[in-house]
Every structure is written in structure tokens, then in C-alpha cells.
Amino acid sequence: MNRLQAVFQPQKKVLNMYFTAGYPALADTLPIARALVAAGADILEIGMPFSDPLADGPVIQGSSTAALANGMNLRVLFEQLRDLRQHLPTTPVLLMGYLNPVMQFGFEEFCRAAAEVGVDGLILPDLPLAEYQEFYADVFARHRLRPVFLVTPQTSEARIRQLDELSESFLYLVSGPGTTGGTAPTDTSSQTAYFERIAAMNLRNPRLIGFGIGTGSALARAWQHADGAIVGSALIQALATAKDAPAAAADFVRELRHSAEIPAV
Amino acid sequence: MITTLKQPTLRGYYGEFGGAFVPEMLFNNVEELRTNYLEIINSDSFKTEFDALLRDYVGRPTPLFEARRLSAKYGARIFLKREDLCHTGAHKINNTVGQIILAQRLGKTRIIAETGAGQHGVATATVCALVGLPCVVYMGAVDIARQAPNVARMRLLGAEVRPVHSGSKTLKDATNEAIRDWIANPVDTHYIIGSVVGPHPYPDLVARLQSVISEEIRTQLLAVTGSELPDCVVACVGGGSNAAGAFYHFLDEPTVRLVAVEAAGLGVHSGHSAATSVLGTPGVIHGSRTLLMQDRDGQITEPYSLSAGLDYPGIGPLHAYLGAVGRSEFVAATDAQALRAVGECARLEGIIPALETAHALAVLGDLNFKKTDVVVVNLSGRGDKDLDTYLKNMEGLEE
Hints:
The structure holds two protein chains of two kinds. Chain A is an alpha/beta fold. Chain A contains 13 helices and nine strands. In chain A, strands 5-4-3-2-1-9-8-7-6 form a nine-stranded parallel β-sheet. In chain A, helix 9 (157-166) links the parallel strand 6 (149-151) and strand 7 (171-174). Chain A is globular. In chain B, the strands form four sheets. In chain B, strands 3-4-14-9-10-13 form a six-stranded mixed β-sheet, with helices on both faces. Chain B has helices at 24-41, 44-58, 68-74, 92-105, 119-131, 141-146, 148-156, 171-184, 202-210, 212-225, 241-247, 276-279, 317-324, 335-349, 355-362, 387-392, 394-397, and strands at residues 13-14, 17-18, 64-66, 77-82, 110-115, 135-140, 160-164, 189-191, 232-236, 257-265, 281-285, 288-292, 328-334, 374-379. Chain B is built from 17 helices and 14 strands. Chain A binds chain B through residues 50-52, 54-55, 57-58, 61, 65, 68, 73-74, 98-105, 125-131, 149-152, 154-156, 159, 174, 177-179, 182, and chain B through 11, 19-25, 27-28, 166-167, 172-173, 176, 179-180, 183-187, 281-287, 294, 296-301.
């Protein structure tokens, strides 16, 4: 059983924490990863900064710009992650980013380097499904990297089934229209209907809800409707002003979990 | 076997360039467009409506004017395709008229656009006013500052101009924000992209809508010279929409030389340039695999040109392909050369071109024409919007 499969247990609700590599300081990547896991993150999604992150809102774009200014690039990232598995032997780790930096690094080369440091899967939102199937599925497989596919309220049932068939990790349910870092809608009825519609499909893969999950109550709602949730922008905001970024990351996760686990009044 | 250079594959590829590299959030929007655009724009009712608006509203056909004094100076028969005489002052409106009809037929009720120099923004705001649809135009904060008259025009036309403060605050970032808006409004909104860039089917859609330029050139040349085919067509390229339109019906005519002129800024290798064909390498930008300016880590870099309409870090995939297979040739003109060409065209022909357009005029002396050569320069836009820049550079406009 691989790390991504092992993390999903019956009844367990999973917390996947996103953070941008090289932010707020270049050397923060691994210390923040360790702090997040120590504080209760079940999966890590490490953002590879890109100059033009189309699916991200201003918070993650800002952290990406700062990380690039700090000197982050894929070579530096893989060097920073060299001892990843010494420190975090069981936590699933995903790399999230955009296609262009990966292509310039060399796709095969990138997958090899990711596998070598112990990365489990990749989220490349602008890699289209058809391209993935034709050109990249073999490369992923060769390096035992699992793709994570996004599902949105507009994704057709047939396409969700196809993504579920191709996936060996989890499906990333985008909570609604918009980029990362939005807020939960004031009227949640159509969102709830969407979550329930997907839940009723009895998919093979676990479902994690992301985009706009920044508070305890949003996390609790996501846990109620899926197997887990992905939190990113809210953490990045908490790190922006932190004196001790790893400690702030740990505090953030503890507080988030705590407030999500308090029964609603 | 390739029988035509015009038509991308089903998935939107011109050779290795093109495609639709969009996140899942945009899949349905792009797929809806891809599966419907050809049927709609090839329908008789679309053509009737499009042609009528081009004639009665845009003012087409635009004249093909034989520029005798420029001809004498450069030793060739030089014709100017007067896209600057289109309503709103540039070729951009050919595309927006077509896309607004398309948007209506897709049932869309809200329009978004990006703009650099503001010409596409004005052309989009104009057609939205024409049909009564709300319009949001994303424009980099830097461009808003240097193109104030166009910002005022868009607002006067009822559009909301949203300043973009992310990244380099220019066209690239305005495009990012427009795409993000589309992600947030996937059902009711149509995104009118202004150039032959973006995910498939946009490059093909915009090229087809702009192809009216070369269609008219053929007819007009036949009447004047006895042949539909010129020896050479010259057009400036940022993303490449006016060049795509001017080249389109000559792509499969190998005797017609196609020259794409990029903005060299302060010099191609000065570090301040937008000459993507020289400085760019293959990569993915705004949903398309094409040539783009990037660092060795794949981060997209900011191009430079004095003209706000040419400082885009990529070129349309069609142009990347035409260059790669040798069908078009790329040359470049600096800011200074373009400014001199503005002054020259104004004094010799009584026409003040846009700064973007002036790049095409600036290379006429470098193309080794024969005296009998028939050369068409696509005069893509007029210079009114650039008067501020021209006034600040009066010395540069002199010989």
C-alpha cells in the first residue's frame, strides 16, 4: 500500500495543507512541511511557484512572486527536499504547479527528481486530460507518481467517471467557481447539492474539497461532505506576517483543526 | 499530408504549437466554444449578420491605398491596407464584431476582455454597447497610465475598466485576470480574446474573423494590378491578430512573401525587447503552447516595447508555426525606428499610424524589394491614441 492509499482510513477525515515552496523565506520549505505534519496535517501539497498561476488567487500568486524573488526554482526545491523522507517517512507529499516550469526542467527529468526525493503525486492544473493520456501517463507511471485531477461543479458526470478511472490518489473537488483563496458562498445550498451529487456517485477514489476552505467552519463542512479538505491561501496569509514561519504554520493547523472539531452550536 | 497552413488540428495544433492547456475550471467554457464555433461562424445567418455589421458599422471594405511617395522612397509598389479607418481606429473591431455575435448565439449575457494598448478594450466596449451587454475590461495599471484616452473611451462606452495590479501590471497580467474572471463566471460569460493567442479554438477563431483583411486585399489588388497576389505582405506582430488577418488568404500561396515585424524595443539583444521569435523558446502561456519569452526556469519574463500593443511575451501559435516551417519571416524594428516611421508616413502620405503599426512601416528599407514588387503593408491602426508619446518624442519623429 502506498502512502497516498494508506492515509485514507474508514471514518477518518483528512487535512491536506498547501504551502508555497520558498515562502516566506527560501529555506522555510522543509521546516514548514515538518511543522505542518507535527501539528496534524495528513497530506502536504507543496506549491512550485510560477510567474503566471492562472488558477490561483492573489494570495497564492503573491506568495509565488515572493518565493521566486527569494530564489526558488525546481533545482533548489529538489535540493531542499533531499532529506524529506528521513523526516516525514509516511506523509503523502504532492507537488502542485503549472506546466511551463516543469516543461523547461524536462518532464521526464522532473518526474525522476520528484520520485527520487519521495514525492507521491503531482497536481498540474493546466495539463489537459487528453494530453496527459497521450503523452504523460506513461512518464507518471514510470516514476510511480500519481496524478491528482480536479473536478468542478461544471464537470460532467461522464468526465468525472473518466477522471475517477484514471486516478489512483484522490479527486480534488473545486468547491465552486473561482480561483484559490475565495470565501465560502453565503448561500451554500447549490454547493451542498454539488458535493452531495458527487458523493452519491460512489467513486473509487476518495474526494477532497479545496478552494475557499480557510476557516474551521468551512473545514467542518468539507469534512461533512467528503473524505477531506485542502487548505492553502489561509495558511499563506497567516505566514505573511509571521516572525517564526514554521511555528506559525503549526499554530494555524492546530487552531484550524480545533475550531473544525468543535461541534457547531 | 498538410494541404493547408491555415487549419489547426482538431485539438488546435499548428505543428507542435497550439493546443488548449487550461485547468479543469475552464474545460467546459473552452469545450463549449470549440464544439460550436465552426458551425456558428460558417452558418449563413452568422455570415449575413457579420458582413452587414462589417459594412455598415465598421466601414468595410477598408481602402487599399497605393502610397506613391513611400513607393518612390523604397523602390516598390507599396499599398497600405487602411485598417486604421475601421470604426474605433484599428483592425481589432473585426474580431469583436464577430465574437459578440458568436457570444449572443451561445446565449452569453456578460462579456469580458483583456487589453494592452486599449484598442481591443475599446473595440470590445463598442460592440457591447451596440448589443447592450455588460462589459468588463481588464487592463494593467501600467497600461492604464500610458493609454489614458482609451481608458476614457471604454468608460464612455459603458464598460467597466478593472485595473490589474498583479505581476508586471501589463497585457500579460490583464490576460491572467480575464482568465480568472472566466473561471469565476463559467456559465454566463464569454471571454473575447483580442489576439490569435490563448487556448484552442481562440487562435483559429480570431484568425478567421480577421481574415476579412486578406480577403479584401485579394479583390482590391486584382482590380488595380490585375493579380490577386502581391509579392509581399508586411504586418506587425504582438500576439499577431492583424498579421494573421493580413496573411490568412495568402498562407497557401507560396509566391507571396509574408513578413512579420516584431518590436525590438531598445534592440533585440538589449534586454529590453519584445522580439519573441528571436528571444522566445517553446512553452505554455495563456493556455497555448507557443514561443514565449521566459527565463531558464520557465518563468515568463516581461517584454519591453514603447508600444503597449506589442509588449506581449508570446506570439500566437499560428505565427510560431509559420516561422518554424519557414512560411513567414520575422524581422524586428526598434522603438526609435518605429518612431521615425511614424514621422515618415505622416509627412509622405498624410497618415499618422499607430505606434504598433509603425513597426511594420519601419522595415520597408530592409526587405530588398525590386521596383516591380507589389507590397502590401497592413496599416493596422491609427495614431491618435499615441499622440502623447509622439509629442514627447518629436525629435525621434524627424528623419
